[in-house]
Amino acid sequence: MISSKHKALFGIYLLALHVFAAFLFNKTYTFQKVLIDLGLEQRPYVNSPTYKATLAHQLRRDGNTSPESIAFFGDSMIQGLNTSAIIDRSENYGIGFDTTEGLLNRLSQYRSSQIANTIIICIGTNDLSILTPEQIVSNILKIIDITPETQNIYISGILPISLERNQKLQHQAPIKQTNQLLNKALRHSLNTTFIPPPNELLDKSGHLSSKHHIGDGLHLSSSGYDIWINHLKDYLNIQPLKESL
Length: 245
What we know:
There is one protein chain. By secondary structure, this protein is an alpha/beta fold. It folds into 2 domains: 4-37; 49-236, SGNH hydrolase (Rossmann fold, 3-Layer(aba) Sandwich), CATH 3.40.50.1110. 44% of the residues lie in helices and 10% in strands. The chain contains 10 helices and 5 strands, in the order H-H-H-E-H-E-H-H-E-H-E-H-H-E-H. Strands 2-1-3-4-5 form a 5-stranded parallel sheet. Helix 7 (133-146) links the parallel strand 3 (118-122) and strand 4. Helix 5 (100-106) packs parallel to helix 7 and helix 7 (133-146) packs across helix 9. The longest helix is centred in the first third of the chain and has 22 residues, at 4-25. The model is unreliable at 17-29, 38-42 and 241-245 (pLDDT under 50).
């Protein structure tokens, strides 16, 4: 029989081999991702009291959602978005730190995911360190499959990050690849539209401008949200309110 000592050594060997292969073939593949793939660690949001409390609060509100509403789903990018600045009859169901898997698991719990006239989704930023672009897109397509074909679905591309943040995390390339794959996958969809990130957010280097984030190279500032809000309005064909005479 194989001793427990040999089993432990073999397990360490497999882990080391997994890490080496991951580094060799995918530089964005982190040690956390290795542990998750091996079932040795859960994704960060699973046991978060804040995540669970936010979800419970949203589900209570969701019970009174009108079919005429536009429902926004996503992570902190959506959570920080003033959706009423886009359209009055809107509901914000963004949860910070959420991932494509998290949204996939919670979306069907919302009544609005089945009855809202329009759904807007922006998700994937928090997956960049643990999933490949192909896996992110696969999860987003599964999310879309949960919604009725009669709904209007808009999928926002993953928003850009700053040059400084990209130098640390190397996420700009997978962001672009994910958005390209999403655009291609949704090109011929009858009820789902891909919304690319607005170019106005970018600086001359093609990264998120320092004017449009709060200092962390990721989350939008008020000016950044102004740009995104107007961009979303254009795609949703929402006309600005006329000033009173």
